[in-house]
Write a structure and sequence with these properties.
This protein is α/β, with parallel strands linked by helices. The protein folds into three domains: 4-20 and 238-380, FAD/NAD(P)-binding domain (3-Layer(bba) Sandwich); 38-126, Orthogonal Bundle (Fumarate Reductase Iron-sulfur Protein, Chain B, domain 2), CATH 1.10.1060.10; 141-236 and 382-448, FAD/NAD(P)-binding domain (3-Layer(bba) Sandwich). Helix content is 34%, strand content 19%. It contains 16 helices and 17 strands. It has helices at residues 14-20, 30-37, 47-50, 58-66, 70-80, 84-90, 102-107, 113-126, 149-160, 177-180, 191-200, 219-225, 254-263, 283-295, 315-323, 428-448; strands at 141-145, 164-169, 205-209, 228-231, 237-238, 251-253, 275-279, 299-303, 326-329, 332-340, 343-354, 360-370, 373-376, 380-381, 397-398, 401-402, 415-417. It has a five-stranded parallel beta sheet, with helices on both faces. A five-stranded parallel beta sheet has the order 6-13-7-8-9. Helix 14 (283-295) links the parallel strand 7 and strand 8 (299-303). Helix 6 (84-90) packs antiparallel against helix 8. The longest helix has 21 residues, at 428-448.
């Protein structure tokens, strides 16, 4: 039987926690970087570059590493992706650039593009060199809502073009998902804040924290006071299980828990259960499962309603969970939460399968997992209230998010949007590209006005 004592802090020593949350991918040194760069064929048509959402000249920067021009390599990367340091750490290269590598098709061992990108960008960051300069002041002011990857990317490119940018961020720190939502072992040593500082060092960008759209400011107000507006608010809503007892002790939102973990000065002070169940099939589910094990949970099981091919978490992420001691159980969905004295005791599941039309259906067969802690990681949703039909100046929506054209322009002529708040892939690298594309479109519009 589970009880409150099953959920506790300080399960591991400080040394154990330090090892568990150390960098999951130790960086390449110069010798290994040169060897890895020498494996590149420097393809003319560069399928790896075509697979990169930000269009980085991957053969170009690898060739510069091979000739020991590391600064040149970093500039090539950052010119297309100003958050190339973060993306080198968290980008799913196994389904993007590295999956398209010619070496992958020949040897099933692609060039370590992500590791080489990190090698180059870290070299530049370590030397505190900012390779870009601002253009002459344009006299134009742009408001950016959200200091996540999309907003920061947009702000940096606008600052480069000479515009003054004010970024309004609801949380205390800038960085968005990189600061609050990525597993701690993927981006340790406060890298997210170091990258924010690097971006801001170009000048012309001011961040106002604790300012949320719809609460502290309105879109109408921003449109009156600025020449253009970019919305990069991300996904503020969290999906629920819609089960009775979801508010009992031990049932937690995975996104909020990861945020607490990322901001905790002492990870050992966080309570973690002995038997942990995670509901979901995305990167958040994997991140919270692995971190639960690394915090000292004894049994961790991820349960997903479909099969491994349907999980949005990549094969690499699924294997990461399993190699860290977390089990993944496919084809099951939760149907009942059982508590004891107000705390979660067990979770009842029902097996699922696909019908003849390929639709998910329940089989009627059930099983139970003991659990003193359950994490909900079943997706996030866009909160449209600040810009929806009830606002003073509503924006057109598509797929429950802000509708944009190829330039990331919304239904209002002076408002652009990007990142997770628009339809598309919910990836850091895609958000950075959205911000960059929008910034160039904003720049063209402001200069034509």
């Amino acid at each position: 039987m589970t009880d409150a004592s099953a959920v506790a802090a300080q399960r591991l020593t400080a040394d154990e926690l330090a090892r568990n949350f150390a960098d999951i991918h130790p960086p390449l040194d110069r010798k290994r970087a040169l060897i890895e760069a020498s494996r590149c064929y420097f393809c003319y048509d560069a399928p790896c570059a075509q697979a990169c959402p930000t269009g980085i000249d991957i053969p170009g920067f690898i060739r510069k590493i091979a000739t020991d021009n590391v600064k040149g390599a970093a500039v090539t990367i950052l010119d297309e992706n100003i958050m190339g340091g973060a993306c080198a750490r968290v980008c799913p290269v196994e389904i993007l650039c590295e999956s398209a590598c010619v070496r992958q098709t020949q040897e099933a061992k692609p060039i370590q593009i992500g590791a080489l990108q990190r090698y180059a960008t870290d070299w530049l960051f370590d030397r505190k060199v900012h390779p870009f300069t601002r253009a002459a002041p344009s006299g134009k002011r742009v408001a950016v809502v959200g200091a996540g990857p999309a907003g920061l990317s947009c702000a940096h490119r606008l600052a480069m073009r000479g515009h003054d940018v004010v970024v309004f961020e609801a949380k205390p720190k800038a960085g968005g998902l990189n600061e609050y939502g990525i597993a701690a072992y993927k981006m340790p040593d406060d890298f997210a804040q170091a990258e924010v500082a690097f971006i801001l060092s170009i000048g012309g960008i001011r961040i106002e924290s604790g300012k949320a759209l719809g609460r502290d400011l309105s879109l109408a107000e921003l449109r009156r006071n600025f020449d253009a507006v970019f919305l990069g608010m991300g996904l503020a809503g969290v999906n629920t299980l819609a089960l009775e007892g979801e508010d009992m002790a031990g049932v937690m939102d995975a996104v909020a828990y990861i945020e607490r973990l990322r901001q905790a000065p002492d990870k050992g002070a966080l309570e973690i259960g002995r038997r942990v169940v995670v509901i979901g099939g995305g990167n958040t589910a994997i991140d919270v499962a692995v971190q639960a094990k690394r915090l000292g949970a004894e049994d961790v099981t991820v349960v997903y309603r479909r099969g491994p091919e349907q999980m949005t978490a990549t094969r690499y992420e699924q294997e990461l969970a399993q190699t860290n001691g977390a089990a993944i159980k496919y084809w099951a969905r939760p149907v009942r939460l059982v508590g004891h004295r107000g705390r979660l005791k067990e979770v009842e599941f029902e097996y699922t399968q696909l019908d003849e039309q390929g639709r998910l259906m329940s089989t009627g067969d059930r099983f139970v997992l003991l659990a003193d802690m359950l994490f909900k990681a079943i997706g996030q949703s866009f909160v449209a209230a600040p810009i929806g039909k009830d606002s003073a100046e509503p924006l057109e929506l598509a797929e429950g998010r802000i509708k944009v054209n190829a330039d990331r322009q919304t239904s209002l002529p002076d408002v652009w949007a990007g990142g997770d708040c628009v339809p598309g892939d919910d990836l850091t690298v895609s958000a950075v590209q959205d911000g960059k594309v929008a910034a160039e479109a904003i720049d063209r519009a402001l200069r034509a006005a």
